[in-house]
Amino acid sequence: MPGAAPNAVAQMLGLLGDEWTLLIVQQALLGSTRYGEFAAGLPVSHAVLTNRLQTMAAEGLLTRREYQIKPARSEYLLTPQGRSLWPVLTSIWHWERTWVPDHRPPLPAMCHLDCGAEFAPAVTCRSCGAPAGADDRGERVVAQWGPSGSWQRSIPAATNRRRSAGRRVDAASLFPETMSVIGDRWAFALLVAAFVGVGRFTDFQSQLGAPPGTIADRLALFCGEDVLANTGGRYALTAKGRGFFPILVCALSWAQRWFPAPEGAAVILTHRACGREFSPALVCDRCGARLRGAQIRPV
Questions:
Q1: What integer pLDDT is reported at residue 174 of this predicted model?
Q2: If you write DSSP's letter for every residue of 66-99 in order, what string do you get?
Q3: Which of 44, 93, 206, 283 has its Cα between 20 and 30 A from that of 126?
Q4: Using 50, 70 and 90 to split pLDDT, how confident is the model at 3?
Q5: Domains of the chain, CATH where assigned
Q6: Which residues form the HTH hxlR-type domain (predicted)?
Q7: Cis (ω within 30 of 0) for the bond into 71?
């Protein structure tokens, strides 16, 4: 409805649709806390890094703490809100290892410390424990707008300048191709639309309300990355595109936890296997145990 406040989806896109925010969270989860550590680990200008650290602290993803007085020095620590992004980052890590084999150097595998095995995260229903994988998304999980949901309320008010499709962040990043896909708010929104069944150019434009050039650019990017395929004028998710399902549902779950609307959820996901509202839980594909962020390490 016109004039209504942005919902959880819009707030999530506004934060996670920025490539530097995700890259800074990634570095923080790996142990970086000080400005110099972030600067050394990321191909980012000082002006951009300073701005993002300040913005992320204001948004509640980081907290700033002074550790030295003369000269003044501060460190940036993840808040519970920022730390709870680990399922999103873990899903991205697995997607990159699976679908982007040309990383230089190759991405490390993930080790589950509880069982000691190299593993892949599997998405399940938190209520019943049954699988809810990307290939079965259409059969197992269905989506509908909730009380605060609509495309108008789900689009962020502003967009950040994004990298060109051919540019990659360097090897300091664990997920360079993910950034070319979701490092832009309109691209992330378009991918969500594809997951709920939008397929034609005019439908993307009318649903999202974006300029035609913006839609054409993002569709070309996704086709170039083999995330979408154009068949007879209709765009459909490829197997690689469907592999984004855990990333999207984990990001949505995070958003609706931290940005609840008074009138209710923006999106309601239902798990058909149990008939209950779907909330994702990541498990180890080797031992079946529920994953925890502190129990995941690169190997």
A1: 58
A2: EEETTTTEEEEEE-HHHHTTHHHHHHHHHHHHHH
A3: 93
A4: low
A5: 85-245 (1.10.10.10)
A6: 5-104
A7: yes
- Written as six digits, the tokens of 19 are 């490539």
In 151-298, alpha helices (H): 151-154, 176-182, 185-195, 201-208, 212-224, 239-242, 245-258
DSSP labels, 123-163: EEETTT--B--GGGHHHHEEEEE-TT--HHHHS-S------
| Helix, coil or strand: residue 234 | strand
Running DSSP on this structure, what letter comes out for residue 34? B
The model's pTM is: 0.88
138 contacts 196 by C-beta, under 8 angstroms: no
222 burial (CB, 10 Å; 0-12 / 13-18 / 19+) is buried
* CA–CA distance, 93 with 110 (Å, rounded to integer): 9
Lowest mean pLDDT among 24-28, 142-146, 149-153, 177-181: 177-181
Residue 162 has which token pair? 């994004």
- pLDDT tens sequence across 194-236: 988 899 999 999 988 889 999 999 999 899 999 999 999 999 9
Residues forming a β-bridge with 110: 119, 298
Q: Residues 254, 257, 263, 269: is their CA dihedral positive or negative?
A: positive
- Among 230, 270, 193, 220, smallest CA distance to 13 is for 193
- Each residue's pLDDT tens digit, 14-44: 888 777 888 899 889 888 999 999 999 888 8
Extract the tokens encoding 211. Answer: 């300029």
- Structural contact between residues 6 and 255, judged by C-beta atoms closer than 8 angstroms: no
Please state the φ and ψ torsions of residue 94, each to the nearest 5 degrees: -65, -40
Structure tokens at 139: 């059969």
Angle between helices 8-16 and 245-258 (to 10 degrees): 120
